[in-house]
């Protein structure tokens, strides 16, 4: 039975966060909008609202617009985290003292291992609140900020998979949010949402293989229609095949990227290239302006690296994924394998498939012990580097959330 939510918090005032906060406001919900930096919310504070355009339109008043995380979280029932995945660990640290029992956290999206990393980080920071952490497989909107306190939603996905940690709590999350987000549907566990991470397929590879064009034109071309040729689509299909092999090794029935496009957008085509070319909701999406883009600094360490790490533990070969990671390391002059998510940071290191499935489905491993009793981890080099890049990305008002 669906239960009416009264109050949401949206963490992140980027392209996706402003769109989601405005949508919720238009639906009559009380919404607190949080952002780490003041700059992103100054205009919204001044007006007290966000003007939304596109699929939904109107003037959405917000309850609070703040950089104070405690103020943003107090008394809310559902916390929608709408930031690149590189900010998840940072957000888990700062929210941990302020969470309240029975709150629901939704990562929009989690990328690969988001809910596992978030839970582990809360535990390392001695969070005592009884909360449910969940993750969406992808972001529900194609949206962007189009001006001060103005956002536009270009399209809405037909269906978005969602799972909670552990999966026995997924139904409760769906019951809470489906009245306002009917597109969300439950899947078996967070391994499914994490390994159905389509951003890992569509983002890093076309960006890196079009790097000369991006640097020459400033990204003034259609990312999907111009940037993904038949040959690049073949490489994407190979990466997708490796991802599916990792999912199979974990007993997860993952969807191919081609099937995901058919389900999410209702698009038709014989292969991945045709499906991407025929997806009208992608027509307006331009390429990144430069290579300092979340398509690399988010989707490599938070998507491809954990997939490769899980694959290595499972004995699955991922040569094409490894090639793209190595290219990103060269271009950004960092070691994303060292800085990104791994089986260790997700709390999966050394576990059997049975133990992993027990963990994500029931919340405990075979011997009945809860994981993540590790000591608190201090902020590392990655937090500082990635937050700087994240700030640069958020300051670019015209980029679109895919």
Roughly what percent helix?
A: 40-55%
Radius of gyration: 20 Å
Oligomer: single chain
Strand order of the largest sheet: 5-2-1-6-7-8-11-12
Look at the structure and give the mean pLDDT: 91
Poorly predicted regions: 368-402
**What CATH architecture of the largest domain would you give?**
Orthogonal Bundle
Q: Assign an overall shape.
A: globular
Indicate how many domains the architecture comprises. Answer: 2
Largest sheet: 8 strands, mixed
Class from secondary-structure proportions = alpha/beta
SS element count, helices: 19
CATH level-four homologous superfamily name of the largest domain: N-(1-d-carboxylethyl)-l-norvaline Dehydrogenase, domain 2
* % residues in beta strands: 5-15%
**CATH top level label of the largest domain:** Mainly Alpha
- How far apart the termini lie comes to 32 Å
CATH topology of the largest domain: N-(1-d-carboxylethyl)-l-norvaline Dehydrogenase, domain 2
Number of strands: 12
Task: Please summarize what this structure is.
The chain has helices at 15-26, 42-47, 69-73, 88-95, 114-124, 170-177, 190-195, 199-202, 204-209, 211-217, 230-249, 257-265, 272-278, 294-297, 300-314, 319-332, 336-339, 353-362, 381-394, and strands at residues 7-11, 30-34, 49-54, 58-61, 64-66, 78-81, 104-107, 132-136, 141-147, 150-156, 160-165, 184-186. It is an alpha/beta fold.
